[in-house]
Amino acid sequence: MKRVISELQLLQLVEAALFTAEQPLSLEQLQNSVLEDFALSKKKVQRILAQIEQDYAGRGVQLQLTASGYHFQSRPELSEFLAKLWPERSPRYSRAVLETLALIAYRQPITRGEIEDIRGVSVSSQIMRTLQDRGWVKVVGHKEVPGRPGLYATTAQFLDYFGLQRLEQLPELMAFQQLGITDAGELPSGRQESNA
Amino acid sequence: MKRVISELQLLQLVEAALFTAEQPLSLEQLQNSVLEDFALSKKKVQRILAQIEQDYAGRGVQLQLTASGYHFQSRPELSEFLAKLWPERSPRYSRAVLETLALIAYRQPITRGEIEDIRGVSVSSQIMRTLQDRGWVKVVGHKEVPGRPGLYATTAQFLDYFGLQRLEQLPELMAFQQLGITDAGELPSGRQESNA
Amino acid sequence: MDEPSDLTPLTVQQPLPLAFIRGEAVLERPEDLYIPPDALEVLLDTFEGPLDFLLYLIRKHKFDIVQLPVLEITQQYMEYIDLMQELNFELAAEYLVMAAMLAEIKSRLLLPKHQHSEEDEQDPRAELIRRLQEYEVFKQAATDLDTLPRQERDYFAGQARLADNFQPLVILPDVAVEDLLLALKDIMKRAKDFQHHHIQREQMSTRERMSRILTLLQQHDYLPFEACFELAEGRDGVVVSFLAILELSKEKLITLTQVALFGPIHLKVATGAEA
């Protein structure tokens, strides 16, 4: 049964449907759901949608047409600010990441292979990417051995983050000496460790 | 660091934040998230919100202030049509749930035992769970009587759901009739007496 | 207990259609003592307990709640309860408790009044009336609450999607210098080889300088030897740079070239051929 509705109400209805539906709505879906009672032509619905698109041109959200239909979307240039509504806390770094970072900091410039030799386990590309994405390490050259592996070093950003002006300000190996590691390369004995 | 932004962009930003956030946003939340970089006064944000409210007065969705903040919602008169977008009908609540909710809303903080006393019937755990799962009520403390029963109160979400800002906006309770027993103990006349 | 058969002027034996048993419809029925057994069970299910049921009886007979005609109400109530029990329905305990309370009130009302009692005893009905009234208030409040406009029924939340270019703001984990030191300790404990790579302050500054020189060499193919020294750093700085250049050369990371005797020395990244 055809019901009567004003132009303004039609516009309000389509607009509200697009804002409250969980999925984008196609023109047909609009015709068959909220507009069901009004027997509107496709052309008419298109005119309504065009009007809404125009109304929102300068606003914070805009009408978008995607493959699955129409929906409202925030203006792209606002994304940077909107991100603050959903801060995501990433998980703590794994032991492997911290050890790799420590070796790069203390033994730079160093290749991934050298890090693997010292750690005794392989270092995943993921770990190197994590540290590079963070801006803490970078490749400063390549070692002229087969494969030309990258030489990693810490960055100025790394120093800034840890509040250091120079790398020498990192804690020295005093801590290790207390552990009983001497120049002779002796392994720390259990007792000394427990005293540390 | 204070950044500069045009009036129009500010309005767009607040509007987009309110449309994209899943929960209502309070003025403070807006100041501390999307508006963080602009160091705006409370008054200024209020002016922006007032402007948005005005802009949407005749549209399909409108700015609403409820207990936990501002959000957009569809015009009530469109609900009949919008309901067609949802295959499932909106949940209806049993009298037991509604009476329990009403008691918590008007008499909070209240224990389950106190609710049972007034209703004259036991309150199932199922009911309390329904209300808590919906986020409408929560335990806010324990009554210092044997068993330390939980004290229930309503939440901001409850007010949000019913479109209220404060508990005082709930409908007024029906006034008690004056107790009219003056001639206590007088036996009502009637045939039944003889049979009693 | 009263016999349900012939003592109740307010009820008429009249079969009830089973069709009305759901929801409120049952409340609208005028005279209904006789209720088919199934319907009776459903009937009690539609009440939220004995108070609700009593309120129904009071409203049905248009009694004034504050002039509670306890005898009549009690009689009505008892008849239902008795019938339920006869039919072996499991009755909620609250209904039986209420029956006992009503019976007690009734018996107290029927006791001869002590003319000389100094103070009037409290009307035995008072507490029940208070409870009925209180319950009715909240029964109404529940109905009012149900009519408030609410989400999902009267309005829906307006939402927009985030633009396609939206990137979440990721808060990266914090790391303290101590974490690095602890990580290094773990490596030391584990790796025997590492004992040879003993780390000292001088060595660290040398290694950092090595990184710095390599970085410079990324920007310039050739680096004049002098460019590796910062005079402002003083003697120590010069030594560190010099050691770094020697170490880089030793590790075959750079090559040093000098075209003419006493001519300028240049640093260049080592290429495979030269290495």
Could you characterize the architecture of this molecule?
The complex is a heterotrimer, with two copies of chain A (196 residues) and one copy of chain C (275 residues). Chain A has 196 residues and is α+β, with helices and mostly antiparallel strands. Chain A has helices at residues 7-20, 27-32, 42-55, 79-82, 95-107, 112-119, 125-133, 156-161, 174-178, 190-195; strands at 61-66, 69-74, 88-89, 110-111, 137-142, 150-154. Helices cover 43% and strands 14% of the residues of chain A. In chain A, the strands form two sheets. A three-stranded antiparallel β-sheet of chain A has the order 4-6-5. The longest helix of chain A is centred in the first third of the chain and has 14 residues, at 7-20. Chain A is elongated. Chain A starts with 6 loop residues before the first helix and ends with a helix. Mean pLDDT of chain A is 85; it is low at 174-196. Chain C has 275 residues and is mainly alpha-helical. Chain C has helices spanning 25-28, 37-45, 50-60, 70-86, 93-110, 126-147, 177-190, 201-219, 234-250; strands spanning 170-171, 222-224, 254-258, 265-269. In chain C, α3 packs across α6 and α4 (70-86) packs antiparallel against α5. Chain C is rod-shaped, with a radius of gyration of 48 Å. The chains are: A alpha+beta (196), C mainly alpha (275). Chains in contact: A-B, A-C, B-C.
Which characteristics define this entry?
heterotrimer; A: 196 residues; alpha+beta; Arc Repressor Mutant, subunit A; 2 domains; two-stranded antiparallel ribbon; 10 helices; 43% helix; elongated; disordered C terminus; C: 275 residues; mainly alpha; three-stranded antiparallel beta sheet; 9 helices; 4 strands; disordered N terminus; WH-like_DNA-bd_sf (chains A, B); cell division (chains A, B); WH_DNA-bd_sf (chains A, B); SMC-Scp complex subunit ScpB (chains A, B); cytoplasm (chains A, B)
